[in-house]
Structure formats: structure tokens, C-alpha cells
């Protein structure tokens, strides 16, 4: 398998969109039983992160933290007004490598995969590649 | 090889536990000479990071930084009181991919692999997969 | 292919050096058409990150953010004076996994690969491994 693409239309300036089910579906369709699942976000104002997806307050609080960490500043030079979104992307990262076992993603009980939107609403893509490792 | 598990009982609310030797041992037992070593932390209030493991003051200072970056806030909604631990986990990340060469992990002179505990003390697991790449 | 090394001499205390072209060249020389490109930074005061490489103001603003996030502190114990550089490295991370398709890195339109120097000027290395996945 080459690459799959998950397409997401985000709704807010900042949001953490749970994409676990879409990734799981790609893993299952791949037929890979034991392997690795690589995710890549080809954007510079949105990233990928793992965190709790059971209780939605975790996402809410993560948003508060990201805004507090990277407030807007008068000395930012980037003209588009989204310098904080670029910096947040480097803080959470743009790629993840997950384990696949018995045909499914290996995740902790509370763990989900999130697209982290920092400059929405926008249309975003996440690339997914599933590789068997025997 | 499918997956190995490293089990760690952390001792403090926040600590950086050096697991380099355990990962190195799994790499050596795998028999892989040239390849990759994938680490995954299936928790949402603990992560994985690379940093200096020679001088323990580096870990101490990293703890000061993490606490300063994510203080508790009255407007956090997550009821368990560990919202900062969740956010710190997204900042350092939950997975690492390391190189294996000549049967050993490739690390810089001062570099070690740490489990980053942010909501301890707890029992934690780190999953490890070693793959030959020829 | 085992490992390639990119060597970089940084010029400043903190800088984001665009290494996209060097990585792209290694990918093309590898002959891999469909696969993965693994990058690893074997230092503890420099990391790797993806961000916009078209407009240099993004890099400038990212530097402002990193300095604001991790100021020096009187209670840092690490004697070399570069405790902030160690912490910044754990925040951006030391490794990246990129996709390769049709013989080239898969990157978003504005996306580039940066060595993030936090304790320069120094000589730095980035290890690169390209693996075919079929």
C-alpha cells in the first residue's frame, strides 16, 4: 500500500479532532496484521498528537494550554497573523508512528489520535501508510 | 519480532526515568544488526523524550521547565486534576523512532531515552519493536 | 542503505536551518521510489522540526516563541548554562519520519525540514535513513 489520505474540515480556529476511527479503518482495510502505521500532516499550522479521547475536557484544557503557551506578540514578523499557529505546530509535531498488532492499532485505553488544528477553520489532510513488519 | 514491553514503576509526580539500558537490551536480544527501533508509550499522562542522561541536573531542570510551562489553572475542566500532565504529554510526545546499527542503538554521546512521567507515581509501560532494514 | 549523515555548521546561538534540499538529495540518491525517510538528531541541545520554509519570518517568530517559553532561571542546576537549550530540544523533538513517494519526499507546499539549533554555533549532524516499503 502506498498512501491513504484522511480529509478533515475543521470548524474552529483551534480544535483537536479525533481521527482514531478513520486511522483504524485504514489499518483494517490494509490487511496488515503486525506492523506500523505512519501518519503525516502536510500542513504548517496544524499537527498531530496523541492524548485522551474519552473525556472531552482533556481537549478543552489542551487548547487553553496551547493558547497560554503561545500568545500573539507585537514583535511577530509573519504577516499572516498566524505565527502562534506555526509555533504550536512545532511544539506538538506533525507526524506519528503507531504500532499495529492483530490487525488493529495499538493504543492505550484512553488514547486517541488527534489532528491539532491551530489556524482553522480549514480543510486538512492526514497521510497514512501502513507497513507490515512480520 | 512483534512487541516487547518495558515496565516501569515511577516514584514521583514528575520524573524522567532513563530507560536507555532496557531498550538497548531489547535491541541486542532482537539480533537486528541494521534497522530501526520504535518506542511507543500507551499512556496519556506520560511520554517519551530524548535528552542528556549523563548529568542528572538536565533532568531536574527539564522538570522545572515543564512545571513552569503548564501550571494548574482554575479554568481547567478535566476533573481528575491532572490536566497539566495531559498537556505536557502532548508537548514532549508519546513515541520515538531510533536507529540501530551494528546491533546497537545509535545515540549521541550524551543522549539517553527517557520515560517522562507527569502524573506519577504509577506503573507505566513502553512498547518496543525492532525491525531490520537491511 | 545504512545511514547517511548531513553535517551542518550553525552560525548563531539559536537558529532554524533549512535542510530540506540535503534530505531530498539523499532520498533521490537512494533510488527508493515508495518508502519512508527517517531523520535522527544525535544531539541534546538541537532538534528537528517541520515548519514553513517559504517565508523566513516564520523561523524568526518561532525563535521568539522558544526563547519566551524557556527563559533562563536562577534555579537551573545544569552548570553549562545551556539548560534552556536542553528543554527546547525535548519540546520540538529529535527525530522525524517522512514519507517518500515517486522518488521524492512528500511535504506540504510550504513545509520544510529544519535543524533547530538551540546552543550554537556548533557543528551538528543529522542521520538519515531511507527505506523502501513497496
Describe the structure in your own words.
The structure is a homotrimer of 134-residue chains. The first copy, chain A, contains three helices and eight strands, in the order E-E-H-E-E-H-H-E-E-E-E. The first copy, chain A, has 134 residues and is an alpha+beta fold. The first copy, chain A, has one domain: Sandwich (Jelly Rolls). In chain A, strand 5 and strand 6 form a beta hairpin. The longest helix of chain A is centred in the middle third of the chain and has 13 residues. Chain A is elongated, with a radius of gyration of 16 Å. Chain A starts with a strand and ends with a strand. In chain A, 53% of the residues are buried. Chains A and B meet through strand 4, helix 2 and strand 5 of A and helix 3 and strand 8 of B.
Index terms:
Jelly Rolls; elongated; alpha+beta; 134 residues; homotrimer; 37% strand
Question: How would you sum up this structure in a few lines?
Answer:
3 copies of one chain form a homotrimer. Helices cover 25% and strands 37% of the residues of chain A. Chain A contains 3 helices and 8 strands, in the order E-E-H-E-E-H-H-E-E-E-E.
Amino acid at each position: 500500500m502506498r498512501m491513504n489520505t484522511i480529509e478533515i474540515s475543521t470548524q474552529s480556529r483551534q480544535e483537536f479532532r479525533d481521527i482514531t476511527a478513520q486511522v483504524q479503518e485504514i489499518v483494517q482495510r490494509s490487511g496488515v496484521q503486525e506492523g506500523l502505521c505512519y501518519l503525516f500532516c502536510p500542513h504548517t499550522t496544524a499537527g498531530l498528537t496523541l492524548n485522551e479521547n474519552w473525556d472531552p475536557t482533556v481537549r478543552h484544557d489542551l487548547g487553553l494550554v496551547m493558547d497560554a503557551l503561545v500568545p500573539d506578540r507585537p514583535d511577530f514578523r509573519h504577516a499572516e497573523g498566524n505565527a502562534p499557529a506555526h509555533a504550536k505546530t512545532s511544539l506538538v509535531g506533525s507526524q506519528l508512528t503507531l504500532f499495529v498488532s492483530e490487525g488493529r492499532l495499538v493504543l492505550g485505553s484512553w488514547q486517541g489520535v488527534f489532528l491539532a488544528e491551530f489556524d482553522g477553520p480549514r480543510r486538512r489532510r492526514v497521510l497514512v501508510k501502513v507497513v507490515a513488519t512480520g
